[in-house]
Amino acid sequence: MQIEEFNTQDRAAAVAAVRPCLDVERWVDEVVDGRPYADVEALATAGQSAAAPLRSDEVAQAMSHHPRIGDRPSGDHAEAEHSRAEQAGVGALADDTAAALRRGNQQYEEKFDRVFLIRAAGRSADEILASLTERLQNTPDQEDEIVADQLRQIAVLRLRGLIGS
């Protein structure tokens, strides 16, 4: 879709278009109600701004749609399609890397009571694994800040992907 089409869609269609980018009601409302946007950059800036900061309940809501790193999301809904594309860099994993990701995911979930989230787009499996290993040393407060930032990065990438240049 082009920015002009997004700007002129009825509200319900615009909400449906951006919700898969970040399923946070306040964020969706701010992005949609900020129309019209001059270009993709203006939209991305608005998306970034609306997601700073994210409250803990908003992070929890947004996280409910994110699969484990290394898992192939199922379904044909927009969130699953985004996740499959974003994790494409993970690709077919060597057995030892896949096992290390599974172990790291389990340790992360036990420590932080949520799935490990990282902007996977543009990162290799080894980079993701290194980040996971490093982040296991964080405190819950440190990790809360990182997860919120990762959600912002993912939302902006998805917004940019939604609107053609």
From TrEMBL:
<feature type="region of interest" description="Disordered">
    <location>
        <begin position="58"/>
        <end position="92"/>
    </location>
</feature>
<keyword id="KW-0456">Lyase</keyword>
<dbReference type="InterPro" id="IPR018020">
    <property type="entry name" value="OHCU_decarboxylase"/>
</dbReference>
<keyword id="KW-0659">Purine metabolism</keyword>
<keyword id="KW-0210">Decarboxylase</keyword>
<protein>
    <recommendedName>
        <fullName>2-oxo-4-hydroxy-4-carboxy-5-ureidoimidazoline decarboxylase</fullName>
        <ecNumber>4.1.1.97</ecNumber>
    </recommendedName>
</protein>
<feature type="domain" description="Oxo-4-hydroxy-4-carboxy-5-ureidoimidazoline decarboxylase">
    <location>
        <begin position="7"/>
        <end position="160"/>
    </location>
</feature>
<feature type="compositionally biased region" description="Basic and acidic residues">
    <location>
        <begin position="68"/>
        <end position="85"/>
    </location>
</feature>
<dbReference type="InterPro" id="IPR017595">
    <property type="entry name" value="OHCU_decarboxylase-2"/>
</dbReference>
<dbReference type="Pfam" id="PF09349">
    <property type="entry name" value="OHCU_decarbox"/>
</dbReference>
<comment type="pathway">
    <text>Purine metabolism; urate degradation; (S)-allantoin from urate: step 3/3.</text>
</comment>
<dbReference type="InterPro" id="IPR036778">
    <property type="entry name" value="OHCU_decarboxylase_sf"/>
</dbReference>
